[in-house]
Amino acid sequence: MSAVASEMLVFEHESVPRTAGGRWEGLFQKIVVVISAVILLVIVCCAVFAPWLAPHNPNTIHLLDPYVGPSRGFPFGQDSAGRDILSRLIYGARLSLLGPTIVVAIALVGGVPLGFLAAYRGGFTDGIVSRLFDVIFAFPPLLLAVVIVATFGASFMTAVLAVAVTYIPLMGRLVRSAALVERSKPYVEECRLQGYGAWRVLFVHVVPNIGRILISQTTLYFAYGLLDLSALSFLGLGAQPPQIDWGGMLENANQGVFQSASGVVFPAVAIVLLVVSLNFIADWALDFRSRRSEQR
Amino acid sequence: MTPVAVDSSNTTERTGLSLSLEGVTTYLRFGRELKSVISRVDLRIEPGEIVGLVGESGSGKSMTARTIAGVLPRGAVTEGALLLGGENLLEMPRRRRRDVQAKEIGVIFQDPRAYIDPLWRVEVHMTEAMRVHLGLSRSEARARAIELLDSVGIDQPERRMRQFPDELSGGMLQRVMIAGALAVGPSVLLADEATTALDVTTQAEIVKLLGDLSSRRGLSVLFITHDLALADLVCSRVCVMYAGRIVEMREGRQIFENPMHPYTIDLLAARPTIQHRVERLPVIKGVPTSAMDAPSGCPFHPRCRFVLDECREAVPALMPVRGGLVRCFRANEELRAQSGSPKGTLPDGEDDALES
Lengths: 296, 356
Hints:
heterodimer; A: 296 residues; mainly alpha; MetI-like fold; 12 helices; 75% helix; disordered N terminus; B: 356 residues; alpha/beta; 2 domains; 8-stranded mixed sheet; 21% strand
């Protein structure tokens, strides 16, 4: 499945021309990208400058005001313990950005070399690596993460590592199939004819050509990672109080959803905004072909 | 366009090397078996000469080129002698052989677009080899690349250097590939169906370019094609391949007038001509075989109209006949005269008139 999928990805990127009448479409895309960039910037700023931006201490409890909707002092309302949702969102941006970043980083560091190893060595090595991936694939990813967390105890880092483990084979398989396709292309043979070393061909030609697939999949996995981590937090297996992340906030607000929806709506919107804007930016970044011709 | 200035640097400093293949056989590995894809190929190309290699698909043309360039699939075995300027490439240590092949042998292919990394600008493709093999700096390599592009007839070479492969036409890209193949100053250029995918006008330009390069730089060119007429036009000598073997070799312009091997005779008879209107073009019965599943004896015998018993048992040697070489037991018998003039060929009388 993955060989076909990656080929289709390549196909999609290479052969879909930007439509000639795409002036409005182009403008629309630009607006979307700018908005996405602003959203991303805001979220990153929240994460970095949380202590200065948050109007309240995110962990200060107001037991008399649980599930209160937006008010003057608490513009996004208060959660089950009367804590300020806005402040918690701002602080929550930290783990919600950090978590998926680590997941993706581990998936890349583990998956990319394994994928290339399998594709280049082939035969026995490929068999071992691929079967290893299959073993991990055999479990539903979230279930596997739950098992790992249950075994090693619930904490933010365990959750991140658990999710990361399930992402290594995803990345590895993708890279393996993409490398197999790329490696058999005629231009790689041309490189052989020119007598370039294997490492040179790998890093100057094969890896950059796979790069677009890698970048688009990485952003996608970032989004999945955020959702998976949120799911783990929602189940109480992720970040533990007093640590805050958006998934955990959802879990906390879940029981009071009929008293005040703000505890559910705002973290959910934050997650969606982050995922969507990241995807738009990745799309734009990969679409350098059309921008290249604009420059001429 | 600036006058061609590079060539002086390249032609004067080096005299080209001749390439010769002596009894070269290449086997590919299929599981535990080795099967031959070309068999006892003898071929010689002098500097400044263009030698043609024609044959059907699967006849072993490309495998011959791959054998020379050293890009065979894993597990392939080559026997015989592959001499470049008198040195046998096959006896060199692997590393040195790869180095010599990379520097001395340039290859261009039918589909230039597939053979260039689509991600990088033309500049990268052009300069990479010079930087790797000659250790030139970026600006030196750049300057030489521009000169090279200019010498293969690309106008605005500076602008082309900044463009991406997908922004160039097929003909232009083939010129880029030729320039790239010449970057480190090879002695041999293998053109594997290099003009097949181009339209006739562009084809003519590229062919002319190859002729110029070959004579100006003293390049030994192997021109591989399935187009007999084109090979005849371009090459000083033409070799016809069948099932991995060279079955006939003739001086240029001779193969049409004097085909001696039954395969060549029938092949030429199967071409449409504008002199004669025929109901149906004659065909060679049967299907072409590759060297791998060639029958014993002469590989052409199952399809041959002149087959003898001995053809089924032994492989004939290449024998000199009428100024060429022919691999046929009956080469001396003027088979074409006996062939009863299959429909579509010239009647004998007219033919003789042409020859005289």
